[in-house]
Structures are given as C-alpha cells and as structure tokens.
Amino acid sequence: MMQKSKVFKWSLYLIILVFLTIPLFYLIINKYLYITNSTNNQQFIHKDNDKPLNNPHNTTFPSTDAKNTYLKRSFSGPNLKYNNEGIPVLMYHSISNKKGNELQLSKDLFEAQLKFLKDKNYTTLSLDELYDFIAFNKPIPKKSVAITFDDGYVDNYLNAYPILKKYNFRATIFVITDNVDKYSHTINSSQIKEMSINGIDIMSHTEKHEDLSTLTYDKQLYTMNTSRKFLEKILEKKVNYIAYPYGRWNKDTLKAAKNSDYTMAFSTSGTWTDKSDDIYKLDRVYISSNFDLSEFERRLTNRNYNNIHSKNILSQ
After folding, report:
1. Are the beta carbons of 117 and 145 closer than 8 angstroms?
2. What pLDDT is recorded for position 64?
3. Rounded Cα–Cα distance for residues 296 and 288 (Å)
C-alpha cells in the first residue's frame, strides 16, 4: 500500500512539473522567433557610408521597420573637419520640368548637381548627423553636405527621390503637414513613410506654412506642435527638426521651437552652417533653377559667397 502511495505521489509531482514547464518552453520559443525576425529585419538597416536600404520602390513595410531608418554614422580617419569649419546645407523646393519659376529645378539639372557631388566624393549627411556635428562637434568628412527640400511637393517623391536613390544620397524634406493627403501636387502619407524608410528624413515646415514672425507665441507653438505630432503619427518616430516658412522668425519663434520639442531649426538665409549659428536659426544655401553648375559649385565650396536670390522665394 505504501509503495502505491509513493508511485502516485511521484506521478503527481511529474504532472505538476510538466504543466509548469510548458509556459517556460513557450516563452523560450517565442523569444527565439523574435530574435530571428529581428535579425532578418536588419537587412533594411545599413551603417555604411550612404548605402541604400535593400527594398524596392513602393514596398510596404511593417510599422516597426518604419522606425529604423538609416543609422547615424561615426566618421574616423583622415580628411575630417569640425564645427568651426562649417557645412553647406542646400535648400531646394520643387524638382520639375515646368518652367517659369526659379524654385522648380528640372530633373536634368538636379541630377547634374547630384552627379557633381558624387564625382567630387561628397558625403551627404542626415540631419541627425548634422545635429551631432553642430551641437557636439562630432567630426564629419571634409566634403560633407546636407540636402534639404521645403514644402513637400509630390515631385520630391516622383522626381527627386529616384535620383537621390540612384546616387545613394541622404536628404530631408520639410513638409507642410496640412497639405498631406489633400492635393495632387503634394506628397501623401504613404510616400512619406516609404521615403523615411529609405534614407529621406521627413521633418516639419509647420502646419499651414504660416509666416511665424506675424503670429503670437501661442499660435506659433500650436502650428509647430500640430505639424510635429502629425508627422510622428505617420512615421512612428520622433520629429526633431523644423524649417521656418519664408525663413522668417522672431524671439517668440525661437522660444516656441524649443518648447515644441524641436532640437534644431533652419532659416532660408545665410551661407554655411557652423557652430557660430544659433541652433534654432541655422543657415542654408539657396539653390535656384537659374544657377548653372559653376554657380552651384561656387555656393557649394565658398562659405562666404553672396547669398542673393530673387524675391520670388518669399512668395512661395
């Protein structure tokens, strides 16, 4: 009788042990699958200099991948510079074959300029990399440049984006968020998400392209916050940078940008960006369809050029 009792007792222990280990095995298997899937997803992330992500045009990705755009790079070796030397931040608007507006560069001219950058061994920086350079003096290659677009025209996606991918260049589009998904001439949410995954940063150009210098502090704060939150919902990641419409700002603008959780902001005037600039009113180099390659090179290589452009830009 005692022997049967012992057998029953140990059998009961064994059954309890099996039930306790089943959840443990379940957790181990799921952890393994998670790690495997995460490893496979790394094919979309590159640390190498200006290498594109390995996905075709118009491919839809899971939301988790949308958070993992190009990683910041750390540059080392010879031919580096620091933030006392500065960097040209190029300012484009539309890439279109339409004529009659200096803000609309033809596809051929835009490609010629990017080919010039590639042939001269320029490195295109993300704005995260630019921020580290300006704010923390992290070195970058001597021949570095940042490429930006204002407004968010659909031709940035249709015309500029394929050329940027062709040359493996990074760039940033400052988007007027109230125009997104509304008009045929402006980019939509799907295009924003695709470009973000493929090395094109999407940042704020306010909600409605207001002249900030004419608004109260509260209205400036509202348009900056509204645009940032709109983009963050699409991109599922933080939006840290803004470009002021028309390049206009006042003291309230700088305060509102900071209080809207932006860490860096851009104007439309000036020349190269360096540590002497206020982090909330950085300079950019204006690029017009009226410029030939020699003028493009002058603005790209001469930090003290005379930054004169048509008043037309102030009406855009």
Report:
1. yes
2. 35
3. 9
